[in-house]
Amino acid sequence: MSFINLFELEKLAEAKLEKIAFDYYSSGAHDEITLRDNREAFNKIKIHYKVLVDVSKRDTATEIFGQKISFPLIIAPTAFHKMACKEGECATAQAAKEAGTIMCLSTLSNTKVEDVSRSSEGNFWFQLYVFRDKSVTEKLVRRVEKAGAKTLVVTVDAPLLGTRERDVRNQFQLPKGLSVINLLPDNKEELPDDKPDSGLALYFNEMLDQSLNWKDIEWLASITKLPIILKGIVRPDDALRAIDCGAKGIVVSNHGGRQLDTSPATIEVLPTIADAVNDRIEILMDGGIRRGTDIIKAIALGAKAVLMGRPVLWGLAHNGYEGVCDVLSLMKKEFDLAMALSGCASVEEIQRDLVSLK
Ligand SMILES: Cc1cc2nc3c(=O)[nH]c(=O)nc-3n(C[C@H](O)[C@H](O)[C@H](O)COP(=O)(O)O)c2cc1C
Which atom from ligand 1 is nearest to the alpha carbon of 38? Predict the structure, then answer.
């Protein structure tokens, strides 16, 4: 492994990627305050480790929605993996399988959902944007059901896309030959002539349903048997409404600081949301996970598992499939060490009293 931690890896990836791609992956909305806060909030939380606990036999595995994973980290849905390496989402899916965890595939992938399903041997989740045209949404749901996705992760923090100023400055566009392949009209490999890839943000923004509301989630739950997880919740009252709508889980997330700038750091809102939910549904969280200790903190504060976004893209850019394998094995190793040094032999032993918020 040519990097010792994920911060070093980010620098290696930056050196390999075109600036326009690195900026797309790394940027946050507007002043990037939430992007920074997601990370800094973890540093403020301290772990009050236990001593003289026999940690000679440790088990990092856990279960999420009935699926066993080798440690509580899942690959977050991120767009356009083929900008990082040519195998794109298939490499990510294979690395997740190799590590014994799950990849959540983005609606905005550069790879067909059926190909990712094959690479993951059918063990993947699908992140869904709900579109203005319900028939487009329904068609996509049917397609991912058929491809074997295990859950639908519905992103609810994006009625429109946030403004990432670095992308505006760079006039971001997908490199030639790449497309949002799962959204193209049947059997087409490129966007319609009047919507070239350079107009991607506009095209996608036009498709998003700005009127998306709780009734649409009920509608979605009525048309599919797949478990629905709502991604992008930062308030306890929204978490409670998610339960009422039939969601099986939520992701406490602010989209990695890419949507509403100055929204709160996710790890800071997690405990009050966990209190409100009171174990009725499963809670995941993401935003700023870069260390094994971050996973411990998230679990102690009420998450069943975490999702991680950007470092996976850095792994892909640095060394494709192997790079993502290295990212996942590093995080698992760090998590295992953090568990041992905290006096926890299993994930269940990570409880709220292990951390303090100041
Ligand atoms: C480049 C990039 C693309 C993303 N694309 C999507 C997406 O298509 N759908 C979605 O729900 N979230 C998307 N996200 C948000 C991630 O799922 C996740 O919430 C975020 O990356 C977590 O923060 P982290 O990168 O600090 O780990 C994206 C994030 C990044 C960085």
Answer: 26
For the chain, how are helix, strand and coil distributed in percent, rounded to 5?
45, 15, 40
Of the pLDDT bands very low, low, confident and very high (cuts 50, 70, 90), residue 183 is confident
Query: Which pair of structure tokens corresponds to residue 209?
Result: 């349903």
Name the residue of 37, 78, 82, 291 whose CB sits within 8 Å of the most ligand 1 atoms, as the mutation to test its pocket: 78
Q: Calculate how far, in angstroms, residue 309's C-alpha sits from the geometric centre of ligand 1.
A: 5
Q: Helices 6-16 and 19-26 sit at what angle, rounded to 10 degrees?
A: 150
Place of tokens 């849905």: 77
pLDDT value, residue 203: 73
The model's pTM: 0.96
Residues with CB under 6 A from ligand 1: 25, 38, 76-79, 106-108, 127, 155, 231, 253, 255-256, 258, 286-289, 308-310
Structure tokens of 75?
A: 């690959």
Nearest to 30 by CA among 196, 263, 188, 248: 263
The residue whose two tokens read 């893209």 is 313
Q: Indicate the fold that domain 6-356 takes in CATH.
A: TIM Barrel (3.20.20)
Q: What is the pLDDT of residues 221-253, one digit of tens each?
A: 999 999 999 999 999 999 999 999 999 999 999
Q: What are phi and psi of 2, to 5 degrees?
A: -95, 15
